[in-house]
Amino acid sequence: MEAQDQYWDAVAYQKRFGHPLLTGELEKHVGLRGRILDYGCGYGRSIRQLHGAGFAHLFGIDSSSGMIGRARTENPFARYVRNSGSEIPFTDGSFDAALLLAVLTCMPDSRQQNRLFSELLRVLKGSGILYVSDFLLNSDTRNRRRYERFEPRHGLYGVFELEEGVTLRHHTREHLERLAGPFQTISAQEFRVETMNGHRSRAIRLILQKQSRHLRA
Prior knowledge:
Elements: H1 2-10, H2 23-30, E1 35-39, H3 45-53, E2 57-62, H4 65-74, E3 79-82, E4 95-101, H5 110-123, E5 124-135, H6 141-154, E6 159-162, E7 166-169, H7 173-179, E8 183-194, E9 200-210
């Protein structure tokens, strides 16, 4: 993870992220007074959008000190925390909603992804909302070649390395739905999005809700 963080620190003021955020979905489910956690908030792009839509209680977490520094400067509408550990530094039931916008792609290891979902389940309130938007596997020649090239090294089709020095992952829909298993799926929509390097990719948006069996007595 240290090498990954160093990469994001280095490009903190260079990259532009494009996954759209439907703020109306959050307002519908949690209201403008809801406490929202943007996990993997980057430079605070979504924080700015949420603030502009009228959300008042915003929190951002990222493992990159460079990204957090830029977020605090450009989008000072939230409480930001730098955290690269496996635990989210908030108590149980702290948030009405959490966002994961193109975060799993930066977290290629399935075990780490599972731990993250467990932590998000913990810090969400009863019936809390998890908004996931991430990249799906692509079938074009450029992507197939790099999936095939790096599969022997990483043991997983869909993981690839950029020459810039970062390892990323595109997912099957089935894998993301397995991660979402502890949640109730409110909606699932596939779409196309521009990557941080200007390419088009398949993507999926999942609106998930914490289920009653996970509420604490």
